[in-house]
Design goal:
- There is one protein chain.
- By secondary structure, this protein is of the alpha+beta class.
- The protein has a single domain, classed as 2-Layer Sandwich (TATA-Binding Protein), CATH 3.30.310.80.
- The protein has three helices and five strands.
- The longest helix has 37 residues.
């Protein structure tokens, strides 16, 4: 669950695909190393304060740099039959789960002030689901996949 793997396809050659992913990583502030037709992140940017520039991006409609919410990313390319390039993206979401842990602590402290136990339980469930879909599924998954897919089209 901590690691999420996506299999994408690109019409570009494997070398051109790796070059575009490398440019995306450079723009996003991800430090990486290349090994043939693969790129492995060695360090992803960390933004702890809301005014840090690395937290924001103009590459997606949401305006956030999704690479600040993950611990690592591994991209491998291999030529496929039919002239396409198969791109395997493995995302390490450990940092996203740490953000969720802090989210749960804040929810727990906030729910103490609720007037009834039922209200507190409903509040915890609703905000936890919103946090899970917002942080883990969207920022730590979908937005990463979309940025990589978009870099093939650019």
């Amino acid at each position: 669950m901590k690691h999420k793997t996506y299999t994408l396809s690109s019409r570009l050659s494997a070398e051109e695909t790796i070059a575009r992913v490398r440019d995306l990583f450079r723009k996003a502030g991800v430090q990486y190393r290349t090994e043939g037709l693969s790129i492995v992140s060695t360090r992803t940017p960390i933004a702890l304060l809301s005014f840090q520039r690395i937290l924001y991006s103009n590459r997606n409609w949401f305006g956030l740099n999704p690479f600040t919410f993950i611990s690592g990313i591994d991209v491998r390319c291999r030529p496929d039959r039919g002239g396409l390039t198969e791109v395997i993206v493995q995302v390490d979401r450990f940092r996203t789960f740490l953000y969720m842990a802090s989210w749960f602590c804040a929810i727990g402290l906030t729910s103490v002030g609720m007037p009834t136990l039922e209200d507190a339980i409903l509040f915890i469930i609703a905000v936890s689901l919103a946090g899970w879909f917002g942080l883990v599924s969207f920022l730590g998954g979908f937005l990463i996949k979309k940025e990589i897919t978009d870099c093939f089209k650019a």
